[in-house]
Amino acid sequence: MRRTSASLVAGALVAAVAWASTPTSPATALDPAVGVADLATDINKILADSRLTIARAGVVVKSAANGEELYATDAGKLLTPASNTKLFTAAAAAETLGLDYRFTTSALQSGRRAGGVLHGDLVLRGTGDPTALAEDYDKLAADVAAKGVKLVTGKLVADDTWFDGQRLGNDWSWDDETAYYAAPISALTASPDRDYDAGSIIVSVAASGSSVKVTTTPETDYLTIVNRATVGSETDVLIERRHGTRTVVITGTVAAPYDEWVAVDDPTNYVATLFRKSLAKHGVKILGPTTTAAAPSGATELAKRESMPLSELLVPFMKLSNNIHAEILTKAMGRKAAGQGTWSAGLKVITDYARANGAQVVNVRDGSGLSRRDGFSPASIAQFLASVRGKPWFQAYYASLPVAGDPDRLVGGTLRSRMRATQAAGNVRAKTGSLTGVTALSGYVTSADGEPLVFSIMLNQYLSGSPKDIEDKIAIRLAQFSRTTATTTDLRAAAPSSGNPAQDLECSWLKPATC
User: Fold this and answer.
1) Which N-terminal residues, if any, form the signal peptide (predicted)?
2) Does residue 377 have an active-site annotation?
3) Catalytic residue among 321, 434, 456, 508
4) Which of 73, 279, 365, 369 is deepest in the core (most CB within 10 A)?
5) What pLDDT, in 10s, does the model give residues 195-241?
6) Which of these ranges, 101-115, 369-383, 474-488, has the smallest mean pLDDT?
7) Domains of the chain
8) Which of 5, 62, 63, 86 is catalytic?
């Protein structure tokens, strides 16, 4: 049975407290410098892998107990972090918004009420809630009906002005436009599932006799489906939305059921269609069209929905490396700090917070790491991770990180199939990151002596399949590290075992729950 975010947070916080309070083991008669030297020798051997000959590799390991640097190579170089960027976004959000922060979505009335008739407009106003499902908008519509509204003589107004109108990041690749992990950002958005993939719809195909049946989650007529797929002996199907349209074209062959998460072109209008349909279902008729605008001055609240608090949202955000959560939180920080729900305002918050906590070599272009112009040095990441250990929200932050080798999607997250049956399993808590030619792993691990360590591993510009096993070998070696006893190095279980042949991307990018 799937655990709730709240229960996951509660359980992980216990581990967080234990990790944060674990003392460094006292020295024995053995020279601690020998253990550090052996660690450096072993990491150098791991990094001598031929796949990195033409690549760039930056690695930093520090004691979180006393700040001692235990290993460093290319520590100050600016490297592409991919989703390691989320380490900074999540921390800045916890600091700026607070763990109790909730997104609100409101239904407002503008005009004069006379019995069940609203002589004016009905307004749906959002603040970016990435957890709102179709059923939540249906509940909001039911609440409006329960207030006695039966007829609206004016318009349905979708108010998404809490954020600006820029939907996509400046540096995002054009060919990611229809992918759910690069969905447009809006203050009014909807998710099709409880991974909270905001701004997308699940399009499902299945063989039905001699034809291919197409369904969507949620059920909606927002998309125009062009079904050219045929039933075949294998499933080799392409589901793709045409650029700048609501048209989804399906081609290829279908044998087994297949799902594709497709980003919608306009989240605000998509949500408005869901809400309008639910209003009609609950007996609320709107005579006017749907428009997009700010709520009129003097509009009063009829009904409101609140999201889960940020403390719980951090779990699906970080465990599953959700890009859309990162960008929504970025704009929410901009709105809170500067009164502007923009990327520029939010990125300033993240950048300033990173630098205030020891990350001096940074270039932040988005909140998720989808931009290839994002840049951090491994030294900056390691220093930042050490610095935030003392923050009052650290336990929730630490609990949100993927746990090596734990098969539960909302515990192990993007590390659930890695480092199993090693000293790192259940020990390493770290953020993954991957783009084609980029992989990174940064986080926390407890050594064999019980010493808390922070580390950052960033590998860029390789031409092979993703060398994530190199990250795993280093992380396992850190779990084996001892200052006071000889270490028997065993890295045999370091290779990822996801079963996914496309090793360039995290499972969360490929979406199937079994990945």
Assistant:
1) 1-20
2) no
3) 321
4) 369
5) 999 999 999 999 999 999 999 999 999 999 999 999 999 999 999 99
6) 474-488
7) 26-100+311-510 (3.40.710.10), 104-165+267-307 (3.50.80.20), 200-263 (no CATH)
8) 86
